[in-house]
């Protein structure tokens, strides 16, 4: 799975995004609307992360989605 799949199915993944990054608000997720750079910015803003840290967390998140997806299939 890659970010394009997440973006294309954003509403399906918002619950998992909020579970991972609980400080994000519904408005944050609406504004991000699946756009990777926008979500990275919101994660940085809410958690005080540098961009590289936010990117690492997002990479791990997508990797975990991929693992979960394989288990569900």
Brief characterization of the structure:
This protein has 73 residues and is mainly alpha-helical. The chain contains 5 helices and no strands.
Keywords for this entry:
73 residues; mainly alpha; Protein Yjbj, Chain: A; 5 helices; 79% helix; globular
Specify the CATH architecture of the domain at 22-72: Orthogonal Bundle
The general outline is globular
Rounded mean pLDDT score: 91
Give helix % range: over 70%
Show unreliable segments.
none
SSE order, one letter for each helix or strand:
HHHHH
Treating each run of at least 4 consecutive H or I residues as one helix, how many helices? 5
Examine the coordinates and then state which fold CATH places here, giving the name of the CATH topology of the domain at 22-72.
Protein Yjbj, Chain: A
What is the CATH class of the domain at 22-72?
Answer: Mainly Alpha
The CATH homologous superfamily of the domain at 22-72 is termed YjbJ
End-to-end CA span: 13 Å
- Rg value: 12 Å
């Amino acid at each position: 799975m890659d970010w394009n799949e997440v973006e294309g199915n954003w509403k399906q993944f918002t619950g998992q995004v909020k579970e991972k990054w609980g400080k994000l608000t519904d408005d944050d997720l609406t504004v991000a609307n699946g756009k990777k750079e926008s979500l990275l910015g919101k994660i940085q803003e809410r958690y005080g992360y540098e961009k590289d840290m936010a990117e690492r967390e997002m990479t791990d998140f997508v990797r975990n989605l991929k693992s979960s997806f394989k288990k569900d299939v």
